[in-house]
Amino acid sequence: MRTMAWSTMAVLSTLVALYALAALLLPGFGPPFLVERRAQIPWAVIAHLAGSLWALAVGPFQLNRRMRESALGRHRWLGRSYVVGVAIGGIGALALAPRAMTGITAQLGFGLLGAFWLAFTLAGFVRIRQGDEAAHRRWMVRSYALTWAAVTLRIYLPLSGALGLSFDAAYPVIAWISWVPNLLVAELSLLRQPQIEGKVVTS
Q1: Does residue 51 contact residue 102 with C-beta atoms inside 8 Å?
Q2: What is the per-residue burial (b if ≥16 Cβ within 10 Å, else e) of 32-47?
Q3: Which of 25, 54, 149, 154 could bond 178 through an S-S bridge, CB–CB 3.0 to 4.6 Å?
């Protein structure tokens, strides 16, 4: 069951990362509002796409215990690159949030997502530098739950259309449900796991 869940997460993450890569490399590719924002603030769109797609793609491999324990050096370097990806993508997200379509509700939703994404990732990085492996893992689980908003948003958008909801009605709600339920699921998952504090030596 866990293997199937991880495989599904990895496949969906890779597909959305590839979609973001196409949007990054092909200026006319993607939804109209993305193309419009790229014309207005290109650096923010490029930063958000580039940083987010990398964080999204490497995240599943960082969370896989067997892969982590079999190659700790690789885990550390990928982890550092994940933090850099979130930093770049998160700054781009904060720049784009005030321009989110449909108004203040969507702008607040995406703005808080970007702020929490940066904060949780920073917390995870600080904890591992302090040698607290258990706290580091918990914060990174939360961080990737927010990274995965890129996937859930792209599930909810076509779903809302299939249900006959207008974009203007659905988008402000999706700006919140694309990440709040993800975070709740992550917290429930962490509560079900043994709370064992661990110390590791980092380089």
Answers
A1: no
A2: eebeebbeeeeebbbb
A3: 149
